[in-house]
Each structure stands twice: as C-alpha cells, then as structure tokens.
Amino acid sequence: MNGLLIGRFQPFHKGHLEAVNFGLSKVEKLWIGIGSSNKSYEKRNPFTADERKEMILSSLDSEKLKRVEIYYVPDTGDHERWTHHVDSIVPEYDVVFSNDDFTITLYKKRGKNVIEVPLLNRDVISGTNIREMIYSSKDWSDLVPDGTKKVLLKIDAKTRLSKIL
Fold it and tell me: Which of 56, 64, 90, 106 is in Cβ range 3.0-4.6 Å of 60 for a Cys bridge?
C-alpha cells in the first residue's frame, strides 16, 4: 500500500519527521509532495524546493529512504483542480496523510481515504515559529532534525530570512 504526504516543509522540522514516521507505520511506500515547490525567497516560502528536498533526505535514515520518494508539487491557483494536478505528478496512492483542514476537505470531497496525522507540540514546532526563531536569533536547533539543521546553516537561513521577513 502507498501513501501520500504533502507539505511545504518551510523548513522540514521534527513534527514533519513524526508525520513521515506515522505514514511509514501505515504504508509500504510514502510519496512526499513538496508543496508550493514553485515558490521560494518569500515570507511564507523562503526555502527552495531543492533545499527542502535536501532537508528531508538528510533527515531520514537509510531504511526509511528506501521507502520514500519525493515529488515537487507546484501551486496551481485552482483549488478545485489541485488534487487532480497532484495525481498527475505522483504515482498511485491508497491513502493521504494530512493535518491541514483544507487538504483533508479537498481529498475527502473526491472520496479519497484520508488519515489525519497527530500533531507534535504544534504550538512550538511549526514552520512559522521556527522561521521567526531563526530570524530573531533564538535557539531553534532542537526543533528540527540534524539534517535540516545542517542545510539551514549551510544556506545561512538567518541572512536569507532577514532579507525576506
């Protein structure tokens, strides 16, 4: 059985890692869709799709990497057709993993099997909060996997965010 997990991963944090682990506990293969892949260097989407892919791949161990494939899912601006657009990008899947109300609604409307992902400490572990912490020089490093931390330091995320935020 195959599953689909879509997120912006701005950046890929420990909550996302838990979502990947949750998905992998339910399916053999997990397709990870990097949402808004056509957006970067923006307030809500400061990191490129390739940087986010690197964050994900460098945060998973070799056994998980064998069961995961990553796909770029650009925004279309057409909510009604978006899930069909996703289907044109990723291989067939049996279940969608999400905790985003809008994504859940769109897939359920199509009759797709959706499993809501439990949230990990959502009030602290969120992309918005982590981006703000990086920008404000607060300690954010324990909120992301080591792979993500290395990528964020390599690309000098603080300087990028200071130009965007």
Answer: 64
Residue with tokens 């064998």: 66
With tokens 């986010």, the residue in question is 52
What is Dmax (Cα atoms) for the chain?
44
In degrees rounded to 5, what are phi and psi of residue 107?
-75, -40
CA nearest neighbour of 6 among 140, 147, 104: 104
- Asked if 148 contacts 12 with a C-beta cutoff of 8 angstroms, the reply is yes
Contact 86, 73 (CB under 8 A): yes
Nearest to 134 by CA among 113, 155, 118: 155
Q: Are 123 and 27 in contact (CB under 8 A)?
A: no
Work out the mean pLDDT of the chain and round it to a whole number. Answer: 95
User: 92-145, pLDDT tens digit by residue?
Assistant: 999 999 988 999 999 999 999 999 998 877 778 999 999 999 999 999 999 999
H/E stretch holding 68 reads strand 68-73
Site of tokens 């400490």: 121
Instruction: Report helix, strand or coil for 32.
Output: strand
